[in-house]
Amino acid sequence: MTHTNAVGWFDIYVTDLERARTFYEAVFGCKLQMIEDPTSETQIMAFPAEMSEYGASGALVKSLHGQPGAGGTMVYFSVEECATQQALVAKAGGKVLRPKFPIGAFGWVTLCLDTEGNPFGLNSRQ
Question: Considering the entire predicted model, what is its pTM?
Fold first, then answer.
């Protein structure tokens, strides 16, 4: 690898792009942006990002090449306080699988399920 961080991008596969967009915008208080796929094979809604800054960005992806569901890639979103987004998950149509718990020197984590059946985590230092 030539980069400090191993992850440079992530895809969260979805079946219903509009439902997933609504869920993630509600939980994180952001607006996702449509990205045009030059192959016209997928529909992509990207999370806001400053690509020159620390961390990775990614997108919701509706594609014939991947399906949502448990047991796939686990994405952890960095947040200020896990409990804040944890409280929004159920309201937005998702499910909290494991409420906020400590992970030692690495802070805190909440494990969740989105409206498409994808597991994801929330990670905060407090």
Answer: 0.82
Query: What is the percentage of the chain residues whose pLDDT exceeds 90?
Result: 57
Distance between CA atoms of residues 98 and 76, nearest Å? 14
For residue 46, give the nearest of 16, 24, 19, 74 by alpha carbon: 24
Question: Which tokens belong to 126?
Answer: 């407090």
Query: By the 8 A CB rule, do 65 and 58 touch?
Result: no
Task: Please give the domain boundaries of the chain with CATH numbers for all domains.
Answer: 9-124 (3.10.180.10)
And the tokens for 27?
Answer: 């939980």
Alpha-carbon distance values, 3 to 38, 57, 73, 119 (Å): 27, 15, 21, 26
Among 82, 30, 77, 33, which Cα is nearest to 55's?
Answer: 77
